[in-house]
Amino acid sequence: MESYLHRQIHDLLLKAHKPVFISDERIDGDSLGSSLALADFMASHGKVVPVYVASPVPEQYQRLPRAYQCTTDIQIFENPEIDLVVVFDCSDDQFVARLIERIPGSPIVVNIDHHATNSRYGHVNQVIVGAPATCAVVYQFFEENQIIPSRDAATCLLTGLCFDTTAFSNGATDERALATGSKLLLCGARVQDVIHTMFHNRSISALRVWGLALERIEEHTAQNMISTYLTRKDIEENNVTDDEIDGLSNFLNLVTDIDTLRIFRETVDGHVKVSMRSLTQDVSQVAKAHGGGGHIRAAGYVIMNATLVCDARGCWGVVEQAQKTV
Ligand SMILES: [Mn+2]
What we know:
The structure is a single chain. The chain has a 6-stranded parallel sheet with strand order 3-2-1-4-5-6, with helices on one face. The protein has 12 helices and 14 strands. The longest helix has 15 residues, at 29-43. Helix 1 crosses helix 4 and helix 2 runs antiparallel to helix 5. By secondary structure, the chain is an alpha/beta fold. The protein folds into 2 domains: 2-199, inorganic pyrophosphatase (n-terminal core); 204-320, Diaminopimelate Epimerase, Chain A, domain 1 (Roll), CATH 3.10.310. Manganese (II) ion (MN) binds at residues 30, 89, 114, 133-134, 164.
């Protein structure tokens, strides 16, 4: 089935007159790497495909091959000629629906992903839950169609694979991840560029904010769990962006043997975002129960209209505001 779908996607890509790619709302190494690798494949067939991103590409990813093809211009969807939409690493069908409803025609939607919570919203759904990254699914696309990815495409794919496996260290690291990594190196992926993109990019201010989060770690011994908290004030007073402090949950997951961890962070629009990681628990179910999503071992959700408060004893908690009534 997977091979059949890869060949079907190949045909759709080559037949499309006006394709558009969508990278997941949450921009990371995997969502960008997978979409840019296929954008590179399309360029080798003379087609420059726009890659829609919900917000500007964070600085650390701006050197990825073809990152210049990313656009935040939502008006690109207002084109009746669009006949194919390919969505990468995105389990949120509402995000995709809001973009697709802007297209005056009825394009074919291809959904390429590996999230356990993906609802299979496309006409063609290449959702491989066992895959370590969407980039591994896209690598399989190349392989099953007997195409050798270019050096640039391989570098994009290795970026996503390293991102989602935290450089082959977390629970998503399996035989397929290591085998795919090795094949990408043989295709000429630039591993030092990937390591630089992933790790050598933290500003000192961002580390200070991480420091606040590390200081505030609370232990829940009975559940073998830790939690920590970051407010808007922490982020804004240190002049860092949310992108810059992303990666804290992966870092904690890498350096502790605590089973489950949760990071609560106030968002710019008045909500609280919860990121969870676990070594043994299915946190995707917890996330789903709260309207979020993700993977079995890495998932998250948003508590709407909420703030974080620290009481006199230094204990942190989430305060949900009642919805304003008109
Ligand atoms: Mn992913």
